[in-house]
Write a structure and sequence with these properties.
Layout: E1 4-15, H1 25-34, E2 40-51, H2 52-59, H3 66-77, E3 79-82, H4 84-97, H5 103-121, E4 127-132
Antiparallel strand pairs: 1-2, 1-4, 3-4
Length: about 140
């Protein structure tokens, strides 16, 4: 059965209070500040969805290299993360491939570019891309 590719953006983060005793209050805030994920719950908001076959066709238009391999990793792992270390190369690759995109692919590229700019402004933000069977289509920022 063909799947859906879903992009999610970190929307907020909080500490699961039952996992953090009162005597480690300062440690809890320190962990939030530095972004460690021990005892921290990340809330991801859905941003964009597309058919798996459309995703694969879209990324096939990216020039060969690190970005394309990264995005193709979704089919192997079922999930990939895009964080601040990927931003510059992704922006460059999207700009390079943009003229070859179909109109709908340009919308996806613009949505992804908005996400990448969010990461540039706030490095703690990241994007998770997942392969799933659920049916829903949207792109919102």
């Amino acid at each position: 059965m063909p799947g859906k590719v879903k992009f999610f953006k970190l929307s907020k983060r909080f500490v699961d209070e039952k996992d953090a005793p009162a005597e480690v209050e300062q440690l809890k805030y320190y962990a939030l500040a530095i972004g460690h994920h021990i005892g921290i719950v990340d809330c991801l908001s859905p941003v964009m969805t597309m058919e798996e076959k459309d995703y694969l066709e879209w990324i096939s238009k990216f020039p060969p290299g690190k970005v394309r391999r990264k995005l193709e990793g979704l089919t192997k792992w079922g999930e990939i993360e895009i964080n601040r270390e990927h931003v510059a190369l992704l922006v460059s690759t999207l700009s390079q491939a943009f003229p070859s995109f179909l109109p709908e692919e340009k919308e996806w590229a613009n949505c992804l570019l908005k996400l990448l700019h969010s990461i540039q402004k706030e490095p703690a933000i990241y994007v998770v891309v997942r392969l799933s069977e659920e049916n829903s289509d949207y792109c919102r920022q």
